[in-house]
Each structure stands twice: as C-alpha cells, then as structure tokens.
Amino acid sequence: APIQVEFDGREGIAGEFVIRAFVLPRREEFSSDDEARRARIGNEYQGIYVYRENRLIYGPDWLGIFQKEPHGSLLRVEFSFDHRLDEAFHVDIKKSQISLNEDLYNWLASDFLPAPRRAADERYRQGRKKKIQEQAAGGAHDSSNRSIGNREKEVDQARVEVVNEQTGEVEVTNDSGRVRMKLRLSKANRPGEVYIQPVGELEDGLLWAPAIIDGHQGVTLNTGHPYYHRVYVPNLSSGVTVQGMDSLLWALAIAELKVTNEATLRYFRELRYEISRILRLLVEDLPEPRDSDDHQ
After folding, report:
1. Which of 18, 93, 171, 274 has its CA 20 to 30 A from that of 107?
2. pLDDT (tens digit, 9 = 90+) per residue, 69-107?
3. What is the torsion angle, in degrees rounded to the nearest 10, for the CA atoms of residue 266, residue 272, residue 278 and residue 281?
4. What is the pLDDT at residue 239?
5. Which residues are CB-contacts of 263 (< 8 A; sequence separation ≥ 6)?
6. Does 272 share its domain with 211?
7. In this model, does residue 20 exceed pLDDT 60?
8. Is the peptide bond before 60 cis (omega within 30 degrees of 0)?
9. Tens of pLDDT along 213-225?
10. One domain, residues 76 and 205
11. At 279, is the secondary structure helix, strand, or coil?
12. pTM exceeds 0.85 for this model
C-alpha cells in the first residue's frame, strides 16, 4: 500500500510513495536462458530503482545504505513517487537524483530492507551451495584420491571391522587395543572416490570426519562448511593445492583411527568440532568466491 508523507509544520498529506522488494529466481530456476538474460541477474543490477512519475530517474543503487555484494545480486527494490514529493526527496532540477532524509534512510535500513535482504541472501546461498556440491562431485578431488591410493599400502593403519551396517558401528583395533565407535559407511559416488568423499553436510557442522568408503579408510569432507566455500572453492582448479588440503585431512582421519581408544574417543570428536568451529570463524573475513553471475 502507498505510504503517506507529511511535511513538518504543514497540515495534510504532502504525497505518497510506493516501495516494493523483489527477490529474483536463481539463474538456473528460469525456464530458459533467454528469460534469465532478460532478468539481468548480476551484481551491478541489484539495489533500489527510483521512479518519479513512472519514469526511472536513478538506480540501481543502495543510496548509501549498503554496498553491492554478491549475495544481494538477486534483490531489486522499486521506489516510486510523483511530483508532490520532489521537495521531500530533494529531487534535483534535472529530475535525475534524490536525497533521503534521515527518518526515511533509517526506516529503509532498519525496518524495510532487512527481511528481503535475508531472503535474497538465502536464495543466493542455496544456489551457491548447489553449485559447490556439483563442482565437488564432478571430480574436484579425483587427483587426491588417486594420489592417496598410490600410497595407501605404505601407511600403517588401524584395522576396522564393520559390526552393524545399519547403525555404522565398527570395531577398531590399533596399538591401544580395541574400541567400538560409529563411523559413516558409504559407497563411492565416482570411480576411485574411496579416500576423499565430498558430502553436502556433516553432523554438528564438522568440516571433516573419518569414514569407511567401500571398505577403505577415508574422510568425508563437508562442502557446506564455510572453510570449503571460501578456501577450497577458489582453488578447485589448482590440483596441487586441493591435494595438499585433502591429504592433510585424510592423514588426520587415519591418525585418529590409529591412536583412539575408549578414553580418548570423545576428545577426538570434540577436537574436530572445535577445529571446525574455529575455522568457521577465521574464514569469515575471507572474500566470497566470485561466481560468473556476480558480474554479468
């Protein structure tokens, strides 16, 4: 509904403006590439579009309220008014720019925009998460699996026997004796994917966890963790970098099985949880990996 505006010290309504927010579908959700192109999904097209008398006079821009960031690329806001509010919005003589007063600025920043921004951010991240999973599942860790496979027999490992396939209970025999624990039991999704297996999520938001993959001791890697998003994704095309990170996590998983016992079982899990939590914090300031849609 139109929002009424009054001038200080004057009686009556000066005019009305309309503001509406739109969260666009992700590029892959459009029915055709042509429709996606017409929607102009991209970082430069996000923001507030200012219309005076049904004519676009300014934008898209956030009018100094926010910066343009990739996770806002799906958000469009229409701000429309007529000539009666020229004085209220300090419209210049060319009818090409406006200036927001403090009350309206604060209302937009604190009351109106947060909800659509959250919705746009969530939709953007859903798309990013899907793309990351597709990248990971598309062979990003193949070279790591081959490299580890070539060295597997040289690594001294614990003996792991599956006790219950339904619950994931296994019995681990190592230098400390025998201990029963639960591990993720899975099948390879790609040929040779038996040491490093990317998955969409792990319990408690862990970055990694030991697993048994087609009978091999391996590690599941959480592609939903921010570390994967901000550290792995920008380097997926760099085989050496990915192999180095994968090898470290596989070694940690194998070492955990090799030395764990009844007394330390809980501590190893807590250690993985704490490391995952700390890494989540540390990567917050790293830049978002750029997507091709962000600058189209």
Report:
1. 93
2. 888 889 999 999 988 888 777 777 566 667 777 888 899
3. -120
4. 82
5. none
6. yes
7. yes
8. yes
9. 999 999 999 999 9
10. no
11. helix
12. no
Nearest Cα to Cα of residue 183 among 245, 260, 87: 260
- For the beta carbon of residue 274, count every other beta carbon within 10 angstroms: 10
Residues 118, 177 within the same domain? no
**Domain limits at 254?**
141-295
Tokens describing residue 126: 């859903």
The encoded tokens of residue 162 equal 């599956």
- Please state the rounded mean pLDDT for residues 275-284: 95
Angle at 38 between CA 290 and CA 48, to 5 degrees: 70
| Contact in structure between 147 and 243 (CB atoms under 8 Å) | yes
CB atoms within 10 A of CB 73: 29
| C-alpha closest to that of 247 among 171, 169, 176, 141 | 141
Residue 290 has pLDDT above 70, yes or no: no
Of 76, 73, 122, 70, nearest to 230 (Cα)?
A: 70
Say if CB 98 and CB 50 are below 8 A apart.
Answer: yes
| Domain identity same for 172 and 269 | yes
- Please name the amino acid found at residue 164: N
CB of 22 closer than 8 Å to CB of 76:
yes
Tokens of 287: 């830049």
The sheet with strand 15-23 has its strands ordered as 3-5, 15-23, 75-81, 47-52, 55-61
Q: How many residues does the chain have?
A: 296
Query: Terminal CA-to-CA distance of the chain, rounded, Å?
Result: 33
Alpha-carbon distances, residue 155 vs 94, 191, 235, 255, 256 (angstroms): 74, 22, 27, 10, 13
For the stretch 164-223, pLDDT in tens is 999 999 999 999 999 999 999 999 999 999 999 999 899 999 999 999 999 999 999 999
- Contact predicate 71/111, CB 8 Å: no
